[in-house]
Design brief:
- By secondary structure, the chain is α/β, with parallel strands linked by helices.
- It has one domain: 3-Layer(aba) Sandwich (Rossmann fold).
- The protein contains 8 helices and 5 strands.
- Strand 4, helix 8 and strand 5 form a beta-alpha-beta unit.
- The termini are far apart.
């Protein structure tokens, strides 16, 4: 009888969390209601926040934030750009990483190596940092660049939204 009680009280196993890098387009789409990917980005971010999608820890880069602010200034306004920057930097869930000098050198070498692909240096730096953190999933709306670099793209490759 006590064995049955223990089985009834054992919680169901939780899905294993996967670390996730978040790219510029995902942040921008979430914060700009006029972005074509706004609804998908909102769905994915909400599912991550409520635990429906088990992505943890969450990472981005200082380069992504610089690109996000520039994109916000070009497509929206300085208020949206500033709000986006403040929210990501203040988020207790997102760790902002910066490549060290050797990591930046590797990102530059990757940029030269893939010179026929038109992949940004920001995306190469993200790829280098993701590799250093053993991250296989990138939340992005530029799927081809990250697939070329060998990553699984959220949500396109995972049907998460």
């Amino acid at each position: 009888m006590s064995g049955q009680m223990e089985d009834a009280q054992t919680p169901a196993p939780q899905a294993t969390a996967n670390p996730l890098f978040i790219d510029t387009g995902a942040f921008h789409a979430r914060m700009d209601q006029d972005d074509a990917h706004h609804d998908r980005a909102t769905t994915v971010f909400d599912a991550i926040q409520n635990g429906t999608l088990p992505y943890r820890p969450l990472y981005t880069t200082g380069f992504v934030l610089a690109e996000l602010v520039t994109l916000g200034l070009v497509r929206a306004n300085s208020a949206l750009a500033g709000t986006a920057l403040r929210r990501v930097r203040a988020s207790p869930s997102v760790t902002v990483l910066h490549p060290d000098e050797p990591g930046f050198a590797v990102a530059c070498e990757e940029f030269y190596r893939y010179d026929d692909q038109n992949i940004s240096l920001v995306d190469h730096a993200t790829g280098v940092l993701a590799d250093e953190c053993d991250v296989e999933h990138i939340f992005t709306f530029d799927p081809d660049d990250f697939r070329t670099l060998g990553f699984t793209v959220v949500p396109d490759d995972t049907d998460d939204a």
